């Protein structure tokens, strides 16, 4: 059947992503007309599929492109078990993926336990662990995620509401490595309307998550007990569209792409600086004067760098040891470098603190620097 313009665009995005991932057409014969079966040892790509319209469209497009390039394509359906009959929804999504010719297709149930950061964050962490575990077990080259431009705009707005700075404007990267597995987002320049159209064109059914609020009237704001992303999607973005008099999603996506380029450049410089300015204790805490310390920062080495790089080095170092520090915490540690006058320890989240002795800033568990 002839493909629509949206379908052709989606196929183009998928091909471009595979090339960027180092997964070109596996053999010249796959450029010829006719059906060709990928080799049993051909590279494997996995699609993270929830059964929603975005991931079903991704599964369909990935299956078509991978088959035409001699690449195996499978799917992983994560059952978060947070809603009634979630197992039935997961199995239904898996059957649809099998119907699209994807193989292997795995349904992975997970436990979502609250860790003080909210159910959404806990579910996301559990989902990524399950996807990464499955990818490693299947020796997959990557996992494809179905985030669209709408998701990108929502992410930027959510990050701006939660934090500040360049990173909050950069949104989700096209390709990122997590837990030793590459995750890729081919559809960041498509929209939810595009994925809906793809499903309709191909006759694919999908499941709508009730927490998205799609059943609510468009002019009725979602209640506060709905997830933040759903409220941004249902209430905030339509308001911004009306306020700006145009498509705000594409503007956020353009800005995110530019911010991501700049972020990558700054991250590269920060990584180079951190290589000689930051030392990690490793699996076991370091011991200085009987104290258990997680990392050391060379204040003199960082003092020579612009503030933008200092802040990025500090933030990345704290994150690397599991400290979710906000700007005020990172800024306070930076003042131990730029405005050093013998001040005391800086209190950090999760029961940590930072203290400077001579030219070294030490980060350790709260209380260990007491009486210094």
Automatic annotation (TrEMBL):
Domain tRNA(Ile)-lysidine/2-thiocytidine synthase N-terminal: start-end pairs: 45-214
Domain of life: Bacteria
CDD domains xref list: TilS_N
Predominant location: cytoplasm
Record bears the keyword Acetylation: no
Keywords: ATP-binding, Cytoplasm, Ligase, Nucleotide-binding, tRNA processing
Family under the similarity heading: Belongs to the tRNA(Ile)-lysidine synthase family.
Protein name: tRNA(Ile)-lysidine synthase
């Amino acid at each position: 059947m002839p493909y629509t313009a949206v379908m052709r665009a989606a196929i183009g995005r998928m091909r471009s992503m595979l090339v960027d991932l180092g997964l070109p057409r596996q053999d010249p014969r796959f450029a010829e007309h006719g059906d060709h079966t990928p080799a049993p040892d051909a590279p494997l790509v996995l699609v993270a599929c929830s059964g929603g319209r975005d991931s079903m469209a991704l599964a369909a497009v990935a299956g078509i492109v991978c088959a035409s390039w001699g690449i195996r394509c499978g799917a992983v359906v994560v059952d978060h078990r947070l809603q009634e009959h979630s197992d039935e929804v997961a199995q239904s999504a898996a059957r649809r993926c099998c119907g699209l010719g994807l193989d292997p297709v795995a349904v992975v149930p997970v436990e979502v336990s609250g860790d003080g950061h909210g159910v959404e964050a806990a579910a996301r962490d559990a989902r990524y662990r399950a996807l990464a575990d499955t990818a490693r077990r299947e020796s997959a080259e990557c996992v494809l995620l179905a985030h669209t431009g709408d998701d990108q705009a929502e992410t930027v707005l959510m990050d701006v509401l939660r934090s500040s700075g360049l990173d909050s404007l950069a949104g989700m990267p096209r390709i990122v490595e997590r837990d030793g597995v590459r995750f890729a987002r081919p559809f960041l320049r498509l929209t939810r309307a595009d994925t809906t159209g793809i499903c309709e064109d191909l006759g694919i059914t999908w499941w709508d998550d009730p927490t998205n609020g799609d059943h609510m009237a468009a002019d009725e704001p979602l209640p506060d007990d709905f997830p933040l992303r759903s409220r941004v999607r249902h209430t905030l973005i339509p308001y911004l569209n009306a306020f700006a008099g145009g498509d705000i999603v594409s503007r956020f996506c353009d800005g995110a792409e530019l911010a991501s380029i700049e972020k990558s450049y700054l991250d590269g410089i920060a990584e180079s600086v951190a290589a000689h300015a930051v030392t990690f204790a490793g699996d076991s805490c370091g011991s200085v004067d009987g104290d258990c310390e997680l990392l050391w920062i060379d204040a003199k080495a960082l003092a020579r760098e612009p503030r933008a790089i200092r802040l990025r080095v500090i933030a990345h170092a704290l994150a690397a040891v599991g400290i979710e520090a906000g700007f005020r915490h990172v800024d306070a540690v930076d003042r131990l470098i730029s405005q050093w006058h013998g001040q005391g320890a800086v209190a950090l989240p999760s029961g940590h603190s930072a203290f400077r002795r001579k030219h070294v800033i030490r980060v350790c568990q709260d209380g260990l620097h007491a009486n210094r």
